[in-house]
Amino acid sequence: MKNLKSARERLSERIQFLHHEAKKSLGQNFLVSDHVIQKIIEAAKVTNENNLIEIGPGLGALTDFLVIQHTNYTAIEMDHKLSEYWKDQGLSVVEGDALKIDWSNLTAKLLVSNLPYQISSSIVIDRCIQPFQIETMILMFQKEVAQRLRAKQQTPEYGMLSVIAQEFWDIETVCDAGPKDFDPPPKIASRVLKFKARATDVTDRAGYLLFVKSCFQQRRRILKSNLPAAMTEKLMKWIEIKKLSDKVRVEELSPVQIRDLYFFITRN
Ligand code: SAM
What we know:
Elements: H1 7-18, E1 30-31, H2 34-43, E2 51-55, H3 63-69, E3 72-77, H4 80-88, E4 92-95, E5 110-114, H5 120-129, E6 136-142, H6 143-150, H7 160-168, E7 169-177, E8 182-183, E9 190-197, H8 205-215, H9 223-226, H10 232-241, H11 255-267
Parallel strand pairs: 2-3, 2-5, 3-4, 5-6
Antiparallel strand pairs: 1-8, 6-9, 7-9
Helix pairs in contact: 5-7, 7-11
The structure holds S-adenosylmethionine.
Protein backbone atom coordinates (compact mmCIF):
# COMPACT_ATOMS: atom_id res chain seq x y z
CA MET A 1 0.00 0.00 0.00
CA LYS A 2 1.30 3.43 -0.94
CA ASN A 3 2.80 5.47 1.92
CA LEU A 4 0.66 8.52 2.54
CA LYS A 5 0.37 10.74 5.62
CA SER A 6 -1.57 9.19 8.48
CA ALA A 7 -5.35 9.21 8.21
CA ARG A 8 -5.60 11.67 11.14
CA GLU A 9 -3.18 14.10 9.48
CA ARG A 10 -4.99 13.91 6.13
CA LEU A 11 -8.33 14.43 7.87
CA SER A 12 -7.25 17.45 9.89
CA GLU A 13 -5.61 19.09 6.84
CA ARG A 14 -8.83 18.78 4.82
CA ILE A 15 -11.04 19.86 7.72
CA GLN A 16 -8.95 23.03 8.01
CA PHE A 17 -8.84 23.64 4.28
CA LEU A 18 -12.61 23.17 3.82
CA HIS A 19 -13.69 24.49 7.25
CA HIS A 20 -15.73 21.31 7.37
CA GLU A 21 -17.91 20.25 10.27
CA ALA A 22 -19.01 16.61 10.31
CA LYS A 23 -22.72 16.26 9.49
CA LYS A 24 -24.47 13.73 11.69
CA SER A 25 -27.44 13.63 9.30
CA LEU A 26 -25.10 12.25 6.59
CA GLY A 27 -23.44 9.72 8.90
CA GLN A 28 -20.12 11.55 8.64
CA ASN A 29 -17.96 9.46 10.97
CA PHE A 30 -14.62 9.70 9.22
CA LEU A 31 -12.17 6.79 9.35
CA VAL A 32 -8.93 7.62 11.18
CA SER A 33 -7.52 4.13 11.70
CA ASP A 34 -4.64 3.42 9.31
CA HIS A 35 -4.98 -0.26 10.18
CA VAL A 36 -8.67 -0.48 9.19
CA ILE A 37 -8.03 1.59 6.04
CA GLN A 38 -5.22 -0.78 5.05
CA LYS A 39 -7.51 -3.81 5.53
CA ILE A 40 -10.17 -2.25 3.29
CA ILE A 41 -7.69 -1.24 0.59
CA GLU A 42 -6.11 -4.72 0.61
CA ALA A 43 -9.56 -6.33 0.31
CA ALA A 44 -10.33 -4.02 -2.61
CA LYS A 45 -7.33 -5.30 -4.59
CA VAL A 46 -9.28 -7.33 -7.10
CA THR A 47 -7.31 -8.72 -10.02
CA ASN A 48 -7.93 -6.98 -13.35
CA GLU A 49 -10.52 -4.64 -11.89
CA ASN A 50 -9.73 -0.99 -12.33
CA ASN A 51 -13.26 0.37 -12.43
CA LEU A 52 -14.45 1.30 -8.98
CA ILE A 53 -17.33 3.13 -7.29
CA GLU A 54 -16.94 4.61 -3.83
CA ILE A 55 -20.03 5.74 -1.95
CA GLY A 56 -19.23 8.75 0.23
CA PRO A 57 -15.54 9.65 -0.20
CA GLY A 58 -16.03 12.17 2.61
CA LEU A 59 -12.63 13.63 3.42
CA GLY A 60 -10.70 10.97 1.56
CA ALA A 61 -9.66 8.36 4.15
CA LEU A 62 -10.07 5.62 1.53
CA THR A 63 -10.19 7.75 -1.61
CA ASP A 64 -6.51 8.76 -1.47
CA PHE A 65 -5.55 5.09 -1.79
CA LEU A 66 -8.36 3.95 -4.08
CA VAL A 67 -7.50 6.47 -6.80
CA ILE A 68 -3.93 5.17 -6.87
CA GLN A 69 -4.98 1.51 -6.94
CA HIS A 70 -7.88 1.87 -9.40
CA THR A 71 -7.43 3.99 -12.50
CA ASN A 72 -11.12 4.39 -13.23
CA TYR A 73 -12.71 5.84 -10.08
CA THR A 74 -16.21 7.26 -9.58
CA ALA A 75 -17.58 8.67 -6.32
CA ILE A 76 -21.20 9.06 -5.26
CA GLU A 77 -21.35 11.80 -2.65
CA MET A 78 -24.40 13.56 -1.22
CA ASP A 79 -22.59 16.40 0.54
CA HIS A 80 -22.45 19.26 -1.97
CA LYS A 81 -19.27 20.86 -0.61
CA LEU A 82 -17.38 17.53 -0.51
CA SER A 83 -18.67 16.62 -3.92
CA GLU A 84 -17.34 19.93 -5.34
CA TYR A 85 -14.03 19.41 -3.57
CA TRP A 86 -13.45 16.02 -5.22
CA LYS A 87 -14.54 17.33 -8.62
CA ASP A 88 -11.93 20.10 -8.21
CA GLN A 89 -9.35 17.35 -7.57
CA GLY A 90 -10.21 15.95 -11.01
CA LEU A 91 -12.27 12.97 -9.83
CA SER A 92 -15.46 11.75 -11.42
CA VAL A 93 -18.25 12.44 -8.93
CA VAL A 94 -21.98 11.79 -9.07
CA GLU A 95 -23.49 14.23 -6.58
CA GLY A 96 -26.57 12.70 -5.01
CA ASP A 97 -28.16 10.09 -2.83
CA ALA A 98 -26.74 6.62 -3.52
CA LEU A 99 -30.23 5.20 -2.89
CA LYS A 100 -31.80 7.43 -5.56
CA ILE A 101 -29.31 7.97 -8.38
CA ASP A 102 -29.48 5.90 -11.57
CA TRP A 103 -26.85 3.18 -11.16
CA SER A 104 -27.42 1.75 -14.62
CA ASN A 105 -24.98 4.28 -16.13
CA LEU A 106 -22.18 3.17 -13.81
CA THR A 107 -20.03 0.42 -15.26
CA ALA A 108 -17.78 -0.53 -12.33
CA LYS A 109 -17.58 -4.10 -11.07
CA LEU A 110 -16.23 -3.08 -7.66
CA LEU A 111 -17.97 -1.07 -4.91
CA VAL A 112 -16.15 0.18 -1.81
CA SER A 113 -17.59 2.24 1.03
CA ASN A 114 -17.41 3.18 4.65
CA LEU A 115 -21.19 3.42 4.41
CA PRO A 116 -23.24 5.96 6.29
CA TYR A 117 -25.03 3.65 8.73
CA GLN A 118 -28.52 4.88 7.93
CA ILE A 119 -28.39 3.64 4.31
CA SER A 120 -26.31 0.48 4.67
CA SER A 121 -29.07 -2.20 4.67
CA SER A 122 -30.89 -0.49 1.80
CA ILE A 123 -27.70 -0.31 -0.28
CA VAL A 124 -27.22 -4.07 0.09
CA ILE A 125 -30.85 -4.82 -0.78
CA ASP A 126 -30.62 -2.55 -3.84
CA ARG A 127 -27.43 -4.33 -4.94
CA CYS A 128 -29.27 -7.63 -4.56
CA ILE A 129 -32.35 -6.81 -6.57
CA GLN A 130 -30.88 -4.58 -9.26
CA PRO A 131 -29.02 -7.19 -11.28
CA PHE A 132 -26.14 -5.41 -12.84
CA GLN A 133 -22.42 -5.47 -13.15
CA ILE A 134 -21.06 -5.18 -9.59
CA GLU A 135 -19.16 -8.37 -8.70
CA THR A 136 -17.32 -7.40 -5.52
CA MET A 137 -18.23 -5.07 -2.64
CA ILE A 138 -16.17 -4.06 0.40
CA LEU A 139 -18.53 -2.31 2.81
CA MET A 140 -18.45 -1.05 6.40
CA PHE A 141 -21.54 -1.71 8.56
CA GLN A 142 -22.75 -1.28 12.05
CA LYS A 143 -21.64 -4.59 13.63
CA GLU A 144 -25.24 -5.73 14.30
CA VAL A 145 -26.15 -5.27 10.63
CA ALA A 146 -23.01 -7.19 9.58
CA GLN A 147 -24.06 -10.02 11.91
CA ARG A 148 -27.54 -10.07 10.40
CA LEU A 149 -26.09 -10.21 6.88
CA ARG A 150 -24.04 -13.34 7.67
CA ALA A 151 -26.47 -14.97 10.13
CA LYS A 152 -27.44 -18.63 9.85
CA GLN A 153 -30.93 -20.02 10.49
CA GLN A 154 -31.98 -20.62 14.11
CA THR A 155 -29.98 -17.65 15.37
CA PRO A 156 -31.47 -14.40 16.74
CA GLU A 157 -29.84 -12.31 13.97
CA TYR A 158 -31.31 -14.38 11.13
CA GLY A 159 -33.92 -12.62 9.02
CA MET A 160 -34.98 -11.27 5.64
CA LEU A 161 -31.67 -9.40 5.17
CA SER A 162 -29.64 -12.59 5.80
CA VAL A 163 -31.64 -14.63 3.27
CA ILE A 164 -31.62 -12.03 0.52
CA ALA A 165 -27.95 -11.13 0.92
CA GLN A 166 -26.77 -14.75 1.10
CA GLU A 167 -28.78 -15.72 -1.98
CA PHE A 168 -26.92 -13.23 -4.16
CA TRP A 169 -23.54 -12.86 -2.42
CA ASP A 170 -20.83 -14.94 -0.72
CA ILE A 171 -19.97 -12.84 2.30
CA GLU A 172 -16.86 -12.86 4.49
CA THR A 173 -15.62 -10.66 7.32
CA VAL A 174 -12.65 -8.39 6.57
CA CYS A 175 -12.12 -6.72 9.97
CA ASP A 176 -13.80 -5.04 12.93
CA ALA A 177 -13.62 -1.36 13.85
CA GLY A 178 -14.35 0.33 17.18
CA PRO A 179 -15.55 3.85 17.98
CA LYS A 180 -11.99 5.16 18.33
CA ASP A 181 -11.29 4.25 14.70
CA PHE A 182 -13.57 7.11 13.60
CA ASP A 183 -13.77 10.86 14.08
CA PRO A 184 -16.24 11.77 15.48
CA PRO A 185 -16.53 8.37 17.21
CA PRO A 186 -19.91 6.67 16.77
CA LYS A 187 -21.53 4.99 19.78
CA ILE A 188 -21.52 1.62 18.08
CA ALA A 189 -19.08 -1.05 16.91
CA SER A 190 -18.52 -1.60 13.17
CA ARG A 191 -17.50 -4.42 10.87
CA VAL A 192 -16.19 -4.54 7.29
CA LEU A 193 -17.54 -7.27 5.00
CA LYS A 194 -16.45 -8.45 1.57
CA PHE A 195 -19.15 -9.60 -0.88
CA LYS A 196 -18.55 -11.72 -3.98
CA ALA A 197 -21.45 -12.12 -6.41
CA ARG A 198 -22.91 -15.67 -6.50
CA ALA A 199 -24.43 -17.46 -9.44
CA THR A 200 -28.16 -17.83 -8.76
CA ASP A 201 -31.20 -19.28 -10.52
CA VAL A 202 -33.42 -16.51 -9.16
CA THR A 203 -34.24 -14.30 -12.14
CA ASP A 204 -37.17 -12.27 -10.74
CA ARG A 205 -35.13 -10.74 -7.93
CA ALA A 206 -37.76 -8.19 -6.89
CA GLY A 207 -40.37 -10.96 -6.77
CA TYR A 208 -38.06 -13.07 -4.62
CA LEU A 209 -37.51 -10.15 -2.23
CA LEU A 210 -41.29 -9.79 -1.81
CA PHE A 211 -41.63 -13.51 -1.15
CA VAL A 212 -38.86 -13.53 1.50
CA LYS A 213 -40.35 -10.40 3.08
CA SER A 214 -43.72 -12.09 3.45
CA CYS A 215 -42.07 -15.24 4.90
CA PHE A 216 -40.52 -13.06 7.60
CA GLN A 217 -43.55 -10.83 8.21
CA GLN A 218 -43.63 -12.17 11.76
CA ARG A 219 -40.64 -14.44 12.16
CA ARG A 220 -41.93 -16.24 15.29
CA ARG A 221 -45.22 -17.18 13.63
CA ILE A 222 -45.55 -20.46 11.77
CA LEU A 223 -44.77 -20.07 8.09
CA LYS A 224 -48.29 -21.01 7.02
CA SER A 225 -49.67 -17.93 8.79
CA ASN A 226 -47.18 -15.58 7.14
CA LEU A 227 -47.72 -16.58 3.52
CA PRO A 228 -50.79 -15.53 1.49
CA ALA A 229 -53.70 -18.04 1.54
CA ALA A 230 -53.22 -18.69 -2.18
CA MET A 231 -49.82 -20.28 -1.42
CA THR A 232 -50.98 -22.51 1.46
CA GLU A 233 -51.76 -25.59 -0.61
CA LYS A 234 -48.33 -25.64 -2.28
CA LEU A 235 -46.59 -24.81 0.99
CA MET A 236 -48.22 -27.79 2.71
CA LYS A 237 -47.26 -30.06 -0.19
CA TRP A 238 -43.64 -28.85 -0.01
CA ILE A 239 -43.60 -29.37 3.76
CA GLU A 240 -44.85 -32.93 3.25
CA ILE A 241 -42.24 -33.72 0.55
CA LYS A 242 -39.46 -32.31 2.73
CA LYS A 243 -40.77 -34.19 5.78
CA LEU A 244 -40.94 -31.00 7.86
CA SER A 245 -43.40 -30.12 10.59
CA ASP A 246 -46.49 -28.25 9.38
CA LYS A 247 -45.73 -25.82 12.20
CA VAL A 248 -42.33 -24.97 10.72
CA ARG A 249 -41.28 -21.35 11.20
CA VAL A 250 -39.26 -19.45 8.61
CA GLU A 251 -36.40 -18.86 11.04
CA GLU A 252 -35.80 -22.66 10.99
CA LEU A 253 -35.25 -22.74 7.21
CA SER A 254 -31.90 -22.06 5.54
CA PRO A 255 -31.58 -19.61 2.60
CA VAL A 256 -31.29 -22.66 0.30
CA GLN A 257 -34.54 -24.16 1.68
CA ILE A 258 -36.37 -20.83 1.33
CA ARG A 259 -35.26 -20.54 -2.30
CA ASP A 260 -36.35 -24.14 -2.89
CA LEU A 261 -39.80 -23.36 -1.44
CA TYR A 262 -40.04 -20.22 -3.62
CA PHE A 263 -39.33 -22.25 -6.77
CA PHE A 264 -41.75 -24.97 -5.67
CA ILE A 265 -44.52 -22.40 -5.25
CA THR A 266 -43.82 -20.27 -8.32
CA ARG A 267 -42.78 -22.95 -10.82
CA ASN A 268 -45.28 -25.72 -10.07
N1 SAM B 1 -15.19 7.54 3.17
C1 SAM B 1 -15.04 8.49 4.25
C2 SAM B 1 -14.30 7.85 5.39
O1 SAM B 1 -14.18 6.62 5.39
O2 SAM B 1 -13.86 8.57 6.28
C3 SAM B 1 -16.39 9.03 4.73
C4 SAM B 1 -17.34 7.98 5.25
S1 SAM B 1 -18.72 8.66 6.07
C5 SAM B 1 -19.11 7.31 7.14
C6 SAM B 1 -20.06 8.55 4.93
C7 SAM B 1 -19.94 9.42 3.69
O3 SAM B 1 -21.11 9.18 2.87
C8 SAM B 1 -19.94 10.91 3.91
O4 SAM B 1 -19.02 11.49 3.04
C9 SAM B 1 -21.35 11.37 3.58
O5 SAM B 1 -21.42 12.71 3.16
C10 SAM B 1 -21.72 10.40 2.47
N2 SAM B 1 -23.16 10.12 2.38
C11 SAM B 1 -24.09 10.11 3.36
N3 SAM B 1 -25.28 9.71 2.91
C12 SAM B 1 -25.12 9.48 1.59
C13 SAM B 1 -26.01 9.04 0.55
N4 SAM B 1 -27.29 8.75 0.80
N5 SAM B 1 -25.50 8.91 -0.70
C14 SAM B 1 -24.19 9.19 -0.98
N6 SAM B 1 -23.32 9.60 -0.02
C15 SAM B 1 -23.77 9.74 1.23
